[in-house]
C-alpha cells in the first residue's frame, strides 16, 4: 500500500477591529482597504485541520465537521496550486524528497464554533488549511509569505496565521504580491487584553461576505470615503493605540469602525443587515458600562453576523462580565463565551 503522509495544524479565529470590507480584485482577493485584527485564543475558537497526501488518493477532498465540502472552487484551487508550486520547487532542488506535490490531498477540518455565523470561520478555516499543507510539504516560508496564499482562500484568513495584533496591508501591486499580513505586536505586548464573544445566533449568515462586499462597493455612496479616507487614518491611529497600550483609544476606534462598516452595509442597495435587535442591545449595554465607568473600558465589534465580540482589559473583567451576564441572562439563545487572545501561534 502507498504511504500516507500527514500533518496537523490549528489556526485561531481573528476578529477585526478595523474591518476589511470591499474587494479591489475578486480574482486575486485583494482588499479596497487595509485592516487590523486581534487573534483570539485557540482554546475557544479555532479550526484544526489534518492534511494528508498519498499516491493512492485519486482526488483532492475536504471534510468539514464530518461533511464533505467542495474544493473545486477557485479559492481552494488557488491555495492548492500555490502550495504545490512551492513544494515542487523544493523537490526540484532535492531529488531525495518524495514527490508529494504530485499527490492528491485530503483535508479533515473541524471547527469548535458555529460555521459562517459571522465568527470568522473562513479565516480560521483557510489559515489552518494553508498551515497544515505547508507543514505537510515542510515549507520554510514565513507566516507573512504564507499569508499571501491564505488571502486567496479567504481575505481575513491571512491574519489568522499570526497571534496577537495583526495588520493586513492592502498593497499596491497589480498582481497582489504585496497584499499580505504582518504582525503589529505579539500577544505578549498587551497580555491583559481580553475578548468576550456573545453568540446571539449560530445560524448561517443571510448574505455572504463576498456578495455583500461586491454590492457595497457597487452601490454605497458612503463607501469610497470609508475605504479611501476614514480607514487609512484609523489604521495609523489603531497601530499607535496598540503600541501605547491605550485602551480608550483602541476602544473608540474599534467601535467607530464597526459602526462605519455596518453603516456602509445599510447604505448598500438593497440594504444589508447583519446586526439584529440583540446586537443593538449589546451595543447599549457596552455604552452603559462605559458611561458608568466614566471612560471607555469595553469595546464592541460585529462582523458579518449578529454576534458581538467585546474587548476589555483584564483589570475590568469582573465588572464587564458581571454586567454582560446580568444583561443577557434573560435573553434566550444568547450564550456567552469568554476568550483570551492567543499566545500560541508563532509570532512570525
Ligand atoms: O474574509 P471574509 O471574506 O470572510 O470577510 C470578512 C469580513 C469581516 O469579517 C466582516 C471583516 C474582517 O476584516 O474580518
UniProtKB/TrEMBL annotation:
It catalyses: (R)-5-diphosphomevalonate + ATP = isopentenyl diphosphate + ADP + phosphate + CO2. GO terms for cellular component: cytosol. Coiled coil: none annotated. Residues 196-348 form the Mvd1 C-terminal domain. Residues 11-181 form the Diphosphomevalonate decarboxylase-like N-terminal domain. Keywords: ATP-binding, Lipid biosynthesis, Lipid metabolism, Lyase, Nucleotide-binding, Steroid biosynthesis, Steroid metabolism, Sterol biosynthesis, Sterol metabolism. The keyword Ligase does not apply. Its EC number is 4.1.1.33. Pathway: Isoprenoid biosynthesis; isopentenyl diphosphate biosynthesis via mevalonate pathway; isopentenyl diphosphate from (R)-mevalonate: step 3/3. One of its GO terms (biological process) is isopentenyl diphosphate biosynthetic process, mevalonate pathway. It is an enzyme of class 4 (lyase). One of its GO terms (molecular function) is ATP binding. Gene3D superfamilies: 3.30.230.10, GHMP kinase, C-terminal domain (3.30.70.890). Belongs to the diphosphomevalonate decarboxylase family. This is Diphosphomevalonate decarboxylase. The gene is MVD1.
